[in-house]
Automatic annotation (TrEMBL):
Residues 288-302 have a biased composition (Basic and acidic residues). This is SP-RING-type domain-containing protein. Residues 1-40, 267-320 are annotated as: Disordered. GO terms for cellular component: nucleus; Smc5-Smc6 complex. Keywords: Metal-binding, Nucleus, Transferase, Ubl conjugation pathway, Zinc, Zinc-finger. Belongs to the NSE2 family. It comes from Kwoniella dendrophila CBS 6074. GO terms for molecular function: SUMO ligase activity; ubiquitin-protein transferase activity; zinc ion binding. PROSITE patterns: ZF_SP_RING. InterPro entries: Nse2(Mms21) (IPR026846), Ubox_domain (IPR003613), Znf_MIZ (IPR004181), Znf_RING/FYVE/PHD (IPR013083).
Length: 320
């Protein structure tokens, strides 16, 4: 649904308007800088809030429609983020299929670049949302914006530029999605723990002051339920703390503590977040990873048995 901040017929709207290609929608305030180098299809679908509907005119709380309209724009941007996140999953699965076909398959780099671009897009959208929410708050506080487009750009541009100027390593080394991407690829052809992801990321000058203690990676995924200590069955995630369990195991645990009239808690050591069944949600993608992991383990064992005579196990180099 198009969102009209102002009618285009508004007399003030005429001369200040600029025609922009459709892909410019939602890229507010980015007119002259080129930090958004990728013309992402995902964002092009977003319509309704272009510079044409977002013309120069003072905007204050006195216009009762404006705050709900900003709210709607924020919702649209959030939808776009949801689609970008679906794209991240697709890219990860594509890269996993390539790695499965051949270790370090060269075209994984291209998929990885797509993944980075999607992460950038998402971050830029988050900045826009943050700015719009800030502006809404200020409008509610009776503040006026003389020129909403300019005010938006003044708030958003420096933040977007600062993000885009960061090095690869600064941008992604603590990205949950990127760590997961690397981890998922790594475990296809290695049995050791995935090394810190910074080794795949170009270092920049801004990385000197970065705290390497927060460098993620290195966990060994074993895909075992912390309750049964067996591989997951119907993997289930706590929405409160993010820990995972087998469905029946966690439900039984919650049920038995409830019967004992005690508060059930996450059984993971050091967590103890209070849990109820309403905090659980199925995690089919984790279950799939666990199944794939099991399948690969099995394949390795079979290969080892087959290769006993020759003792030539290709992967040995990676073990230590
Ligand atoms: Zn927990």
């Amino acid at each position: 649904m198009p969102i009209r901040v102002l009618s285009p017929a508004s007399p003030e709207a005429g001369p200040s308007r600029r025609r922009l290609p459709p892909s410019a929608s939602v890229q507010l305030g980015q007119g002259d800088n080129d930090i958004d180098d990728d013309d992402d299809d995902i964002v092009e679908e977003e319509e309704g809030w272009t510079k044409e509907t977002f013309v120069n005119r003072s905007l204050s709380k006195n216009d009762p429609a404006i705050i709900p309209q900003l709210r709607q724009v924020v919702d649209k941007l959030k939808e776009a983020i949801g689609r970008i996140e679906e794209g991240l999953d697709v890219a990860k699965e594509t890269a996993m299929a390539l790695e499965d076909s051949k270790q370090d398959e060269p075209s994984i780099t291209e998929v990885e670049n797509t993944f980075f671009r999607a992460l950038n897009q998402r971050e830029l959208l988050k900045i826009k949302i943050e700015v719009l929410e800030e502006m809404s708050t200020r409008l509610r506080g009776n503040e006026e914006f003389g020129n909403i487009e300019k005010s938006f750009a003044e708030l958003a541009d420096p933040r977007e530029k600062a993000y885009m100027a960061k090095s690869q390593r600064a941008k992604y080394k603590n990205s949950k999605e990127y760590v997961d991407f690397r981890q998922a690829l790594w475990e296809i052809n290695h049995e050791t723990a995935c090394p810190p992801v910074s080794q795949w990321l170009e270092k920049g000058d801004d990385d000197v002051s970065d705290d390497d203690d927060f460098d993620m990676g290195g966990q060994t995924q074993n895909y075992r339920c912390p309750i049964t200590l067996m591989l997951y069955k119907e993997a289930t995630t706590s929405t409160k703390c993010g820990h995972n369990y087998s469905k029946a195991a966690i439900e039984d645990l919650i049920e038995s503590t409830r019967k004992a009239k005690r508060q059930s808690k996450c059984p993971v050591t050091g967590c103890s977040v209070p849990l109820s069944k309403a905090d659980l949600k199925p995690n089919p993608s984790l279950q799939k990873r666990a199944d794939d992991f099991e399948r690969r383990q099995q394949r390795r064992e079979d290969e080892r048995e087959d290769g006993d005579d020759t003792i030539a196990i290709e992967e040995d180099d990676d073990y230590e």
